[in-house]
Structure prediction request, 411 residues.
Amino acid sequence: MIGIPGSGWYWSVAVPAGLPGLLSSMTTPSPLRQATSLFQSRFASRPAVAASAPGRVNLLGEHTDYNGGPVLPFAIERRVVVVASQADEWLAVSAVDGQLESFDPGGSGSSRWTDFPRAAVRVMRGFGLRIPGAHLAVASALPVGAGLSSSAALSLASVRALALLAGLKLSLPDLVEIAWRAEHDELGVPCGRMDQTVVAHGVRGNALLIECATGQIERVPLPGKVWIFDTGTTHRLAESDYPRRRQECAQALVVVQERGIAVRTLAELSVAQLSQLSGWLPPPLDRRTRHVVTETARTRAAAKALAGHDLTALGRLMVEGHQSLRDDFQSSTIEADLIVESVMLRGGLGARLTGAGWGGAVVALIPEQWESRIVAEVRADFKAAAGRELPAWAARASAGVRREQVVSELG
Ligand code: GLA
Prediction:
């Protein structure tokens, strides 16, 4: 436990181009075996350590994390695996292309996937931790650009593997802090802390209600499955309108504070205060604020609904959340709107765009007894409208970042 202090969360504008093009075609039932066999074929030895980290789905609470509000995500079963051994140099290989890449933690970024472990090493060394050189191999069962946090998973798995190699005992908050700073400070990705937090703290069978202003985490049992529809429109955080939305939220907060309302974040405003505010906030700041404030209320209500097994109420809140993203935050896409509409038309309980938006995935609550019919109909509706297949799979709440047992592929 090294007790890394939290930092402020302002976004920086330096955006690494083309990140991450790394794991795009990675789909395998056993990324651990894949990473290990890749390591052995490239480095002619068995890796010393292995770590994995999951992707995540957010049930509700979008764009609330950097506004001091709550989020309700869960870690999914699909994971990124990093295996590693100590070395005198830095060499890495990913299962996407099998190419051996060298990188220099002391140098600048390359806009390649290796920027994630490189940034992690820089942050860890910045905290005074002794991190030796390493050989790394990476494999993943998570699609990239689907809004399921593949980059946070890669960062967390890298940090965990490097800590294991260095013999460091880091707490989960430490891992979150390092991974977040690596992406945010080193790579200039203007993210909040939701993804790193849930990817680290995920618990099997539970969603997490994370209060981002305080860091408080409450488990909310989520025994069933949730459906994920991949819109196929790629989402890349740094290249989307995400940085602009962060700026708009920051501007709205300044206006509100200048009017004498004593709040530190937009999420502290109440729904009742919104009508008063709309006269002061110019468009589009009024809509952005309305999204954050209503989403904050919806997320806390959703956690209560889930805890009380009221899936009908949860589903309704999800649809309201989607409408708010579509109309007020303007982060939805035609494909996501279409899928949400189809899920509801076909008998689903709720659906919404999950993650940052501008592409990515839709998460849906579908009654189990009708799921095969409903999923088939939604996929057919999408194919008829968009002219292409709609990948869909069921996800269950899974564990966060963890050490894995190294398996030997050499026999
Ligand atoms: C991305 C960011 C998160 C969060 C979501 C939107 O996933 O990494 O910090 O802001 O978008 O809710």
In short: The first strand starts at residue 49 and ends at 58. The radius of gyration is 21 Å. The CA atoms of residues 48 and 85 lie 5 Å apart. The chain has eleven helices and 13 strands.
